[in-house]
């Protein structure tokens, strides 16, 4: 019997790992199944652009994995039982249970903030394709009224900044306000903060700083200082969270539900489980937790791939880089900021702004998409056989 590898999630981390493992492991020894809630690869990096009205490429996962031998199961993961090595899923046929010998958990994250009154009922977000499309429909309706609808973005992290600037540029008929809990762009260098502020002024974005939103209503938000801000569409970008599936299954997790892994992305509580992307609590080479980002998905995905390959084939596990080098922020189509950080993840004094930064960010987005569809670029083409110790039938007999 072949060793069963199940990959949960086909985002930037999961899709890359699945494709790479399929091309580096012998199909005689291993079978790989990817479980994903949607049939397409979603460019999460560009969902704010989708919401603003741009058409975003969404390759079919069946095409991405064509010729690799990877089995695609379009379904939603409902539970994980790492002690029994099974995953429960719900699909168009009702769902069922998938058994595994090795599991890669890469289900990613979703918008946080549903503990704030009214966010779930009245808020919009760009953390998933359905929610980005919902926001797009709302913005279309506001544009169609011709009365200058009011859009309020809560949160001035990277997602909030990119969403506010994209909407303001793409839909100049709408009034856009960005609410920051502290100073706008507080984590950026002084020069980058100035560049960001000038971009907001150029795009007509109203910035409200040092303000905490305590509740979202149908027609606006209520702030901690007692102020009320009117809005026809409130977009919540104040952080991300993960589902409780890993915690409920008994995996060791942090207080926020991230799977605790070792340097190789292996679960510290269940050795047959690996995690990558936003689902993993991974310590970077600087000694600090890696942030939730596409870059971290790439780094943790590559490390998980090497760890799984090494473990199954009996080779030494290679340690790949786990870096956090900086932030890449788009400010509409023709402007941006590249902000390098130091070893302690603090913004350096220099930054790159303007069209050059926008072109570099666009190239990064393109390369991220290309890497998903071409996971073997620069890799040896040899497919490795599994070591005898990881023969699937033997592993199951020991379970």
Task: Give structural notes.
This is Oxidoreductase. Keywords: FAD, Flavoprotein, Oxidoreductase. Its cofactor is FAD. With 399 residues, this protein is of the alpha/beta class. It has 2 domains: 3-109 and 242-324 and 367-398, FAD/NAD(P)-binding domain; 111-236, 3-Layer(bba) Sandwich (FAD/NAD(P)-binding domain), CATH 3.50.50.60. Helices cover 30% and strands 23% of the residues. The chain has a 5-stranded parallel β-sheet with strand order 3-2-1-7-19. The chain has a 5-stranded parallel β-sheet with strand order 9-16-10-11-12. Helix 1 runs parallel beside helix 9 (294-313). The two termini are 15 Å apart. Mean pLDDT is 93; it is low at 393-399.
Keywords:
11 helices; FAD/NAD(P)-binding domain; about 400 residues; alpha/beta; five-stranded parallel beta sheet
Tell me the layout of helices and strands:
Elements: E1 3-8, H1 12-24, E2 30-36, H2 47-52, H3 61-64, E3 71-74, E4 76-81, E5 86-90, E6 96-99, E7 102-105, E8 110-111, H4 119-122, E9 123-124, H5 129-145, E10 150-154, H6 158-170, E11 175-179, H7 190-203, E12 206-208, E13 213-217, E14 220-223, E15 228-230, E16 233-236, E17 240-241, H8 245-248, E18 259-260, E19 273-275, E20 280-281, H9 294-313, E21 326-330, E22 336-340, E23 352-353, H10 355-373, H11 392-398
Parallel strand pairs: 1-2, 1-7, 2-3, 7-19, 9-16, 10-11, 10-16, 11-12, 18-20
Antiparallel strand pairs: 4-5, 5-6, 8-17, 13-14, 14-15, 21-22, 22-23
Helix pairs in contact: 1-9, 1-10
Protein name: Oxidoreductase
Domain FAD/NAD(P)-binding: 4-288
GO molecular function, one term: NAD(P)H dehydrogenase (quinone) activity
């Amino acid at each position: 019997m072949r060793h069963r590898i199940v990959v949960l999630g086909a985002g930037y981390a999961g899709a890359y790992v699945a494709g790479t493992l399929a091309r580096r492991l012998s199909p005689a020894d291993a079978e790989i199944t990817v479980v994903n809630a949607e049939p397409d690869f979603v460019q999460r990096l560009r969902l704010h652009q989708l919401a603003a009205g741009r058409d975003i490429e969404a390759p079919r996962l069946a095409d991405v994995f064509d010729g690799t031998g990877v089995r695609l199961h379009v379904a939603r993961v409902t539970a994980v039982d790492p002690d029994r090595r099974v995953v429960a899923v719900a699909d168009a046929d009702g769902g069922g249970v998938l058994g595994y010998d090795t599991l890669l958990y890469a289900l990613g994250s979703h918008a946080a903030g549903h503990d704030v009154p009214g966010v779930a009922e009245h808020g919009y977000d760009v953390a998933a394709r359905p929610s980005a499309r919902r926001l797009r429909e709302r913005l279309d309706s506001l544009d169609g009224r011709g009365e200058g609808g009011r859009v309020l973005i809560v949160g001035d992290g990277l997602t909030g900044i990119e969403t506010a600037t994209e909407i303001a540029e793409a839909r100049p008929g709408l009034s856009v306000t960005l609410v920051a809990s502290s100073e706008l762009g507080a984590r950026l260098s002084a020069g980058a903060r100035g560049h960001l502020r000038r971009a907001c002024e150029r795009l007509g974005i109203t910035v409200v700083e040092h303000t905490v939103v305590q509740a979202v209503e149908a027609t606006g938000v209520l702030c901690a200082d007692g102020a009320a801000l009117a809005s026809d569409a409130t977009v919540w970008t104040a952080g991300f969270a993960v589902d409780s599936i890993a915690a409920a299954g008994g995996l060791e997790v942090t207080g926020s539900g991230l799977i605790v892994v070792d340097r190789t992305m292996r679960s510290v509580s269940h050795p047959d489980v690996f995690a990558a992307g936003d689902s993993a609590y991974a310590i970077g080479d600087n000694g600090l937790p890696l942030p939730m980002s596409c870059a971290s998905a790439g780094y943790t995905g590559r490390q998980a791939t090497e760890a799984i390959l090494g473990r199954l084939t009996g080779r030494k596990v290679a340690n790949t880089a786990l870096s956090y080098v900086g932030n890449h922020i788009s400010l509409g189509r023709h402007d941006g900021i590249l902000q390098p950080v130091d070893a302690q993840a603090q913004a350096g004094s220099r930054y790159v702004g303007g069209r050059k930064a926008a072109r570099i960010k666009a190239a990064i987005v393109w390369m991220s998409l290309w890497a998903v569809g071409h996971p073997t670029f620069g890799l040896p083409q040899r497919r490795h056989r599994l070591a005898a110790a990881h023969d699937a039938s033997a592993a199951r007999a020991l379970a």
